[in-house]
Each structure stands twice: as C-alpha cells, then as structure tokens.
Amino acid sequence: MKIxxxxxxxxxxxxxxxxxxxxxxxxxxxxxxxxxxxxxxxxHAKIKYVFETHFHADFVSGHLDLKKxxxxxxxxxxxxxxxxxxxxxxxxxxxxxGAYKVKAIHTPxxxxxxxxxxxxxxxxxxxxxxxxxxxxxxDVGRPDLAQHVVADLTEExxxxxxxxxxxxxxxxxxxxxxxxxxxxxxxxxxKKMSKQTTDTLRHQKATNYALRADMGKEEFIKELLTGLxxxxxxxxxxxxxxxxxxxxxxxxxxxAKKPLSAEAFEVLANETGALLLDTRDAKDFAxxxxxxxxxxxxxxxxxxxxxEMIPDVKQEILLITYPGKQEEAITRLSRVGYDNTIGYLxxxxxxxxxxxxxxxxxxRITPQELELAYASEKPLIIDVRKKSEFDSEHVIGxxxxxxxxxxxxxxxxxxxxxxxxxxxxxYRSMIAASILKQRGWDDFVDVAGGFEEMKNTGxxxxxxxxxxxxx
Length: 471
Prior knowledge:
- Its EC number is 3.-.-.-.
- One of its GO terms (biological process) is hydrogen sulfide metabolic process.
- By secondary structure, the protein is α/β, with parallel strands linked by helices.
- It is built from 16 helices and 24 strands.
- Helix 15 (about 425-440) links the parallel strand 22 and strand 23.
- It folds into three domains: about 5-235, Metallo-beta-lactamase, Chain A; about 245-355, Rhodanese-like domain (Oxidized Rhodanese, domain 1), CATH 3.40.250; about 365-460, Oxidized Rhodanese, domain 1 (3-Layer(aba) Sandwich).
C-alpha cells in the first residue's frame, strides 16, 4: 500500500499521503498545502479527499486551502458540524481512493467527532489505521480539550467514551495493523507519547498503558486524567478556527510580507501596539535586540512556544528575523493560527542597529562562572524548565518557575536582588529573559548552555524532589 507519513518535528505532527491509480487522499494536513499538491502532481494523481480525524486544537489544518486549490472533498466523522461544506461520514462508511478503500470508524473520546480511518489495500487486506489523536504510540489522546469549547463535555465523560472506543472499535481489529497517529513525542496532545511514530496494534496492546486488557473503565479514567497539564491557551482558539474556517494562507502571507525600515517599523509598533517577535538564536538576541521584543527562536519548538506564550491568536505581530527567514516565520506562525503578522524589519536586526536606534542586551554567564559564584555567594537560581524536569534533577536550592507559567508568577522574580535564570540548554531561558526585560527586570543573568552544561561543573545537583523556599 502506498501510504506516506509526512512528519513535521517542530509540531510533532504527522500528516499522511495515500495514492492509488491516479487518485490521492491527504489526512490531517498542515496549513501550507503546496507540498501535498506537489507530491500528488509528481505521482500524476488528483487529490480526491482530505480526511480529518477531528477538529484539531494544536494546529490549524490545511483542509480549506486544499479544497479550494484542488477541488478535493473534505471528510469529517459523525457529529462534526463545520461552518463550511464538508462530507460528514457515517460510522463504517467506505471511501475509495483508486484501488484502495478507506473505512471511517467513529471513535469519540479525544473529541466527540474523533474518527479513525482503516486503510484497506487493493487485495482487500486491512493494512493500517490512521488514528488521529485517539491512539498514539505509547499513549492515547487527552480527553480534556473539548470542554474548553463545549462546557458540558467534561473530561470524565470524554475519557469514558475513549475507553469504549478503544475497547470496542480499535482493540478488536487485526493485531498486524500499523498504527499511524497524528502526533509523536513533544506534542501537548498527550503525556506519554513515544519518539516512535508508527507501530503495530499488537505491540501497542502489549506496551501502551491505556490498552491493558485487564483495565476497567474507572481505572482507565483515573489513570488517563492523572498528570494532565493545563493545555496551552491557543488550543481552543485553534479548534474554533478549524470549525468555523479561516483566511487562506495566501491572504495571510500577502498581509505579512511587508519589509519595513527601522523608522517605519518603530512607527508601526507605536501605532498598533503589535508584539515585537524576534526569532533569532538566543546567543544573538542576548548581544542586542529591539527594546520590548520577545525572543522565540525559529530553531526550536517555535510554534509551540508561540502558542504557550502569546495568549491571543489575533495578536498583531511585527517580526525581527535573520534576513530571508521571514517567510518561514510567517508560515510557522500560521500553523498555530497566528495570522496577524503585519510586517517585518527589512534585513533584520542590523537594520535597526545601523539606524542608531536604542538597543538592549541580556547578560549571560557560563556554567563555570556560575560555579565560582555558587561556591562563594550562593546566588538565587530560578530554573524555568518543566516541573517534571526539575523534579528529576536540579541545582540544590534552585526555585522552579516553568516558562509556560511565568506570566502568572512574575511576583516570584525579585526586583530588589540579583538572580540567575536557566533552562536545559538556553532556548527557553532566553524567552523568559526577554519577557522579564519587557516587564522591567534588569538585575539578572542567563546561563549559556543551561542545565546540561551546568551538570559538568562542581555545582551541587539534587536528583530527587527537594523542598525549596518560595520567594
């Protein structure tokens, strides 16, 4: 069977391309659709269907642009009510793609419209199951997202539906089926996802905690809901975009690709109140940046951290990028629904610097310099990694303020004494540093290289949960 997984690491997202006898189908596409169109054209195939497993929360799907550009029919599962033309499949309905068949299996739980798609080859053999966010490798979809859109869909109700869907719809299928999920490790749509992006159903039954044969419904619900973190605030906003519709990516790009001089950039920032988003690497940002700009580097989990740190997808944005990187930044912003980029600094930060505009910097120290200070002065150290990372191991005496909670915990950063911030490698701590600078903090330094390099020094590391004194 000709099925291809198209994986995008920065979103931990998998789309799928199916082709047979000149017909193709795309499952859960990303916002930029031209690569899918090009892929089909290379096969001399016409895209017949765009199958959606559910209304996604962590990205804006490309189904509307694919329909507009190719004439493909959009397919959702039972109970879906999109604000645009789409085919709403019945449970068990079969679609043909060339010599292949695609069977829709309604599997509510992650969301009520969640649907998996059984792939059947030209000989009638069941080959694989595209599971969306219903079943991951090592995990299952979190059931607490839909309630942020529909209040009476509690996480307990959805978890119960998911239990039934897994036991009654998926686990009875052929053990040799290949499982093709929508996400891998790093996605916020689950909590224990594997780095592997495909597996057999047989192996998942043997290793996935949620598929244990002896697990009852109440135990499943309890275990599934334990340890869920608060979902990013952009998730329900992306869901509504996927339900109601959105601007074409071409429109978003036309609006955003406006090169600005330093003077025009400054005027537009003052007139609009736009967020200044600097996508350069942490080391370059630290050496000099436009005052009040926030650093989220492109060479990291860019879209996910944009979604975590910028609450409103409608926020107007002005970009500072390396020259030639503005289109990539605009595209990756649009993947998570941030469609209101209104321009970028022409030729990047050098344009600002060469115009003799005001510049700010972030102080950085090496782990070795911190080691010397730690031995004599015991500086206040604030660790902005996730709680699970901090609990695993951390500098003795450090305080944990996870980056995604920083805006709710600014009071824990002192203004009357110096402090040190760090993360694992320097990416997240520079996001934190830029936010602190924007909010008026100055007397702090960031650790270049972060915790991973600090472990190679003589700084004392705790490998267990150590009580700390809150500020």
